[in-house]
Design goal:
Helix content: 10-25%
CATH architecture of the largest domain: 4-Layer Sandwich
Bound molecules: zinc ion
Number of helices: 8
CATH class of the largest domain: Alpha Beta
CATH superfamily of the largest domain: Ribonuclease Z/Hydroxyacylglutathione hydrolase-like
Strand order of the largest sheet: 7-8-9-10-11-18-19
Distance between the termini: 38 Å
Number of domains: 2
Shape: globular
Length: 332
């Protein structure tokens, strides 16, 4: 029977190490025998070439493009990796292409580590699926406050397409600000029905081939070319604007696409025309209901603005929880 607590340590920059099973997740640890990576965002993947890494096929392909050249074992979703001590299964996390939740089962219990996840999932991913239950849950709670409640995906998708259409009708060039990995490709995927040429910032462009290799339709796009970008639908990270992205285009309108766009203050901070709160993470209510559904003995909460709030709501549902401080900012 599992105890009430797990032995957990920090691995690397912000990952987790299970000393009992010698498993590191989303970080490296000198004593780890097995290292798993949930997805290829910079704050979850490592670049230590000497660490043999287990991850989904798209995650490994993306990691390679982002600088990891070590040995690896590709894993299929829902096909367990077994040793004599434990069994590990990857469940699709719906966050970005290849993103996985790590489910570990061993003699004394089971643990689900979410990494970053989103349910309902991004349409530019493998979808979302979770085990029926787990003894322990380690979950991020990036948007773990009741002010964060997302609109339906259909509404957000409409907002994105309408913004582009209205800009183009008035001869404005629409610029969508979204993180290079995940959000940028989701935007291309959502905008492709407009059948209008699109251009994406070079850093995001080089990652698109992996999406296409895994059958995500990104429509008619090419790499950003300053001299030919006027009148196209443009996609870039918010940092690119201050570095001169499309600065030669006089008539343009800018939409900021992120969970953080639900904060009105971002409009003036970033000087944008439109805020579209489309996130790669669960909102507060989705998070609480996921915890209720899984009904674990204990929830460990990471990456959250105020752990007391999530703890309070989980307590109301009879779920014991504890904050794990991994000290890191979310990228999207
Ligand atoms: Zn992420």
């Amino acid at each position: 029977m599992p105890g009430n607590s797990l032995q957990l340590k920090k691995a690397g920059y912000q990952g987790i190490y299970l000393p009992e099973l010698k498993i590191a997740m989303d970080g490296t640890h000198p004593d780890a025998k097995y290292t798993f990576v949930t997805h290829a965002h910079a704050d979850h993947m490592h670049r230590n070439h000497s660490v043999h890494t287990h991850a989904s096929k798209p995650t490994l392909a993306l990691m390679k493009l982002r600088g990891f050249n070590g040995k690896s074992t590709p894993m299929e979703f829902l096909e367990p990796f077994e040793t004599d001590r434990f069994k590990v299964t990857l469940y699709p996390a719906g966050h970005i292409l290849g993103s996985a939740m790590i489910f570990i089962e061993w003699d004394e219990g089971s643990l689900l580590y979410t990494g970053d996840y989103r349910n309902p999932p991004s349409p530019a991913t493998e979808g979302f699926e979770a085990p029926d239950n787990a003894d322990y849950l380690i979950t991020e709670a990036t948007f773990g406050l009741p002010i964060y409640k997302w609109k339906s995906h259909e509404k957000l998708s409409d907002e994105i397409q309408s913004f582009a259409r209205q800009c183009l009708e008035k001869d404005y060039t629409p610029v969508f600000l979204g993180y290079n990995l995940g959000k940028a490709q989701e935007l291309l995927h959502l905008l492709r029905p407009l059948n209008h040429p699109m251009m994406i910032h070079g850093a995001g462009y080089k990652l698109c081939s992996v999406y296409e290799d895994f059958d995500v339709d990104l429509g008619n796009y090419e790499a950003y070319d300053r001299d030919n970008c006027e009148g196209k639908i443009l996609v870039c990270p918010s940092s690119a604007l201050s570095n001169g992205f499309a600065s030669n285009v006089k008539k343009k309108k800018i939409a900021y696409c992120s969970g953080w766009a639900s904060l009105e203050s971002r409009r003036t901070q970033l000087t944008v025309d439109k805020l579209i709160p489309i996130s790669d993470h669960l909102d507060f209510y989705e998070l609480i209901s996921f915890c209720e559904r899984l009904s674990p003995k204990k929830v460990y909460i990471t990456h959250t603005p105020n752990p007391k709030v999530v703890e309070h709501y989980l307590e109301k549902s009879g779920i014991v929880s504890e904050h794990m401080d991994l000290d890191s900012d979310a990228d999207d």
